[in-house]
C-alpha cells in the first residue's frame, strides 16, 4: 500500500500531460530530489510503470495507439533527421535500445513526440557532451515507438529510407492498443 506521499506523487504523474522533472516533484511535495528518487524506486518495485526520461518522470498510461520496435542504423550526424522523420509522421519515440556484448540490452527512455522534443534532446546531448547509445554498436539500435495508424509508421519508415537511414525492421508487432 503506497504511503500518502507516494499516493500524491502518483496522482501528480497521472495528471501530467508531459514528464515532470524530479526537482519540480520535490518542490511540490516539500522534499529533496533524493527523496523523490527513492519514492519512485519504491513505486516501480510495486509495479508502477514510471519511467525516467531526459525531461523528467513519466507514468506510462495506456494509449489508444499501437506499438512496435524499429531496428535502424545510421551515423550520429543523422540522428536529427531520424527523429524528425518519425515525429513528423506522428510516430512517438518512447526509447532507444542497444544490445551490448557485456551488459545485454541497454535502454534509454526518450519520450520524443515533437520536433521541439528532438531539439531539446539534441541540445542536451551537445551541452552534456554525451555519447549516443548507438555509438556503442556502430550506429545500429532499436526504437520502441507508438503510432495511431499503420500509414503513419509506413510513411515514417519511407522518410527514414529517403534520408539514407537504414531501416532493418519496420513490421508492426501486432501488439494492438497499448
Quick gist of this model?
With 178 residues, the chain is of the alpha+beta class. It contains six helices and seven strands.
* Low-confidence sequence ranges: 173-178
CATH architecture label name of the largest domain:
2-Layer Sandwich
Q: Give the N-terminus to C-terminus distance in angstroms.
A: 26 Å
Taken from the alpha-carbon principal axes, the silhouette is globular
And the CATH topology of the largest domain? Histidine-containing Protein, Chain: A
- In CATH, the homologous superfamily of the largest domain goes by the name 3H domain
Which strands sit side by side, in order, in the main sheet?
5-4-6-3-7
Number of helices: 6
- Mean pLDDT, to the nearest integer, reads 90
- Beta strands, count: 7
Number of separate domains: 2
Q: Supply Rg.
A: 17 Å
* Main pleated-sheet profile: 5 strands, antiparallel
Q: What's the helical proportion of residues?
A: 25-40%
The secondary-structure class comes to alpha+beta
Q: Into which percentage range does the β-strand content fall? A: 25-35%
CATH hierarchy class name of the largest domain: Alpha Beta
Order of helices and strands: HHHEEEHEEHEHE
Q: How is this fold's topology laid out?
A:
Elements: H1 4-15, H2 22-29, H3 33-45, E1 50-53, E2 56-59, E3 66-73, H4 79-88, E4 92-100, E5 104-112, H5 115-127, E6 140-147, H6 150-162, E7 166-169
Antiparallel strand pairs: 1-2, 3-6, 3-7, 4-5, 4-6
Helix pairs in contact: 1-3, 2-3, 4-5, 4-6
Organism: Alicyclobacillus vulcanalis
InterPro entries: 3H_dom_sf, 3H_domain, HTH_11, NadR, WH-like_DNA-bd_sf, WH_DNA-bd_sf
Domain Helix-turn-helix type: 5-57
Amino acid at each position: 500500500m503506497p504511503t500518502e506521499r507516494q499516493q500524491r506523487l502518483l496522482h501528480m504523474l497521472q495528471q501530467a500531460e508531459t514528464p515532470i522533472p524530479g526537482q519540480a516533484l520535490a518542490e511540490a511535495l516539500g522534499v529533496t530530489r533524493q527523496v523523490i528518487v527513492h519514492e519512485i524506486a519504491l513505486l516501480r518495485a510495486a509495479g508502477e510503470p514510471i519511467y525516467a526520461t531526459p525531461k523528467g518522470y513519466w507514468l506510462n498510461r495506456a494509449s489508444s495507439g499501437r506499438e512496435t520496435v524499429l531496428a535502424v542504423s545510421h551515423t550520429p550526424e543523422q540522428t536529427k533527421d531520424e527523429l524528425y522523420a518519425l515525429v513528423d509522421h506522428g510516430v512517438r519515440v518512447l526509447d532507444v535500445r542497444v544490445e551490448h556484448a557485456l551488459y545485454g540490452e541497454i535502454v534509454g527512455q526518450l519520450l520524443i513526440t515533437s520536433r521541439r522534443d528532438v531539439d531539446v534532446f539534441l541540445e542536451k546531448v551537445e551541452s552534456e557532451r554525451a555519447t549516443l547509445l548507438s555509438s556503442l554498436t556502430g550506429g545500429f539500435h532499436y526504437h520502441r515507438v507508438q503510432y495511431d495508424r499503420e500509414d503513419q509508421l509506413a510513411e515514417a519508415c519511407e522518410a527514414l529510407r529517403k534520408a539514407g537511414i537504414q531501416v532493418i525492421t519496420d513490421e508492426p508487432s501486432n501488439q494492438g492498443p497499448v
